[in-house]
From TrEMBL:
It comes from Laccaria amethystina LaAM-08-1. It holds the Pfam family TPR_10. SUPFAM superfamilies: TPR-like. This is Kinesin light chain. Signal peptide: none annotated.
Length: 379
């Protein structure tokens, strides 16, 4: 093809792909987007498009693709699209337009997925301020913005700030929507997760049992939100030392997600990782290792080596190696964790400090183990 033909047909394919995506993702099955994302990524790699046309006319298509790429685990590629969307809308619509604010919101979500929590917080504060000013403090979008900022505070370890915001969100949703509304139940769930982080496990368990009951009754046991509620309750059971209860629920979650979503869906991979953590708590380190090796391969392939979820599973696998006295394997993985966390979070971040401490413990135990092995004699 000539250069002009390549540009024309790539552009036509780009438009067709964009039109095939519904405005609301829940109107189409996940499997369709899973197939479509392959074609979108191929088109991105091959298209030759005039920059002005991309910036001025394609922000809606970019927004769709950015959301889909993030959903499918391609956060770095999603980020590039969403930055283009925000730049185009800021120039053509202005910073106060609802579509521009929406672009800020989606980019903040991708920053959060990439572990860029400080960047996410900066944008989410901006979204909350703008929505509060132009929509009102009790508008649903403003309340969602408040809830999203609270989740980022959780990720930054600012649990007291998260609890304050989530309590306000829950109070407003109870008052405006009622206790059986899905948004109210989501607010209950988020507050319970913060209670977990604050060590208020009894309070978290009480809320999560209620959330699971409501979602089972209103949505049904196969709904994704019901399965998420089951998983969250299992995590709290684990924090309370109820490991057998946690194991039973997590096995159920994994089976359901495999059946409904497939083994390569991000939620299924997360369920595998969560079950492995429970196996660790039960001392089943070989079982944990078997799962974690699979999860690490999948996350490396889908999310990339520096994604926060990839680094987390790498550290968990290092812990499984450590408890099986596979110190060289544990050292190799945890050294990578330390390097990436220093790069992303900085040396003073709690996650970096935790990784450094774990690596020191692994090396100390390895030295002690080597010393004991060398000094032992056969009788």
């Amino acid at each position: 093809m000539s250069s002009e033909d390549k540009q024309k047909y790539c552009l036509m394919a780009y438009v067709m792909l964009a039109v095939s995506l519904a405005e609301k993702f829940n109107e189409q099955p996940y499997g369709f987007r899973r197939v479509l994302v392959t074609h979108v990524r191929a088109n991105i790699q091959h298209r030759i498009m005039a920059k002005k046309m991309v910036d001025v006319y394609f922000d809606d298509a970019h927004e769709k693709f950015g959301r889909m790429l993030r959903e499918q685990g391609y956060d770095s590629e999603a980020e590039k699209f969403q930055i283009k969307v925000l730049d185009a809308r800021s120039k053509t619509l202005g910073g106060k337009h609802p579509d521009t604010i929406s672009a800020i919101h989606f980019l903040a979500g991708t920053y959060w997925s990439l572990g860029k929590y400080a960047d996410a917080k900066h944008l989410q504060i901006q979204v909350l301020r703008l929505r509060g000013r132009y929509l009102g403090k009790e508008h649903p979008d403003t309340i969602w913005a408040m809830g999203n900022l609270a989740i980022t505070y959780q990720s930054l370890g600012k649990y007291v700030d998260a609890e304050e915001l989530e309590t306000r969100v829950l109070d407003m949703r109870n008052r405006l929507l009622g206790e059986n509304h899905s948004d109210t139940i989501t607010a209950m769930n988020n507050l319970a997760i913060t209670y977990q982080s604050l060590g208020k496990y009894g309070d978290a368990e009480k809320i999560q049992v209620e959330v699971l009951d409501l979602r089972n009754r209103i949505l049904g046991e196969d709904h994704s939100d019901t399965i998420t509620a089951m998983n969250n309750l299992a995590n709290t059971y684990e924090s309370l030392g109820k490991y057998e209860c946690a194991e039973k629920l997590k096995i159920q979650v994994l089976k359901m997600r495999n059946r409904l979503l497939g083994e390569e869906h991000p939620d299924t991979i997360t369920a595998m990782s969560n079950l492995a953590i429970t196996y660790q708590s039960l001392g089943k380190y070989a079982d944990a290792e078997e799962i974690q090796v699979k999860v690490l391969d999948l996350r490396n392939e889908i999310l990339g080596k520096e994604h926060s979820d990839t680094i987390n599973i790498m550290e968990n696998l290092a812990i499984s190696f450590y408890h099986q006295q596979k110190y060289n394997d544990a050292d190799r993985l945890e050294a990578q964790v330390v390097e990436v966390r220093k790069k992303i979070f900085g040396e003073g971040h709690p996650k970096t400090a935790k990784a450094v401490a774990l690596l020191a413990e692994i090396r100390s135990q390895a030295k002690r183990f080597t010393s004991e092995t060398e000094s032992s004699e056969f009788i």
